[in-house]
Amino acid sequence: MTTRLLTGGVGADGASLVLRLDDVSGTVVAAAASLVVQPTDDVVDCTGLVLLPVGAEPHVHLDKVGTIGDAPNPSGELMDAVRAWLAHAPSLTFDDVHRRATEAIDRYVVSGTTAVRSHVNVHATIDLAVLEAVLAVRDDVADRCDVQVVALVTAPLVGDDDVVQATWAQAERALDLGADLVGGAPATDSDPVASVHALVDLAARRDLPIDLHVDEKLDPSSRSLLAYVDAVRARGLGGRATASHCVSLGQQDAAEQHATAVRLADAGIAVVALPPTNLWLQGRGRPVATPRGVTAVRTLLDAGVVVATGADNVEDPFCPLGRTDLVDAARLLALTAHLSPAEAWAAASTSSRAALGLAPADLTVGSRADVFAIEGADVGQALARASAHRLTFRAGRLVSRTTVTTAMT
Ligand SMILES: [Zn+2]
Question: Which residues surround ligand 1, an ion (CB under 5 A)?
Answer without folding.
Answer: 312
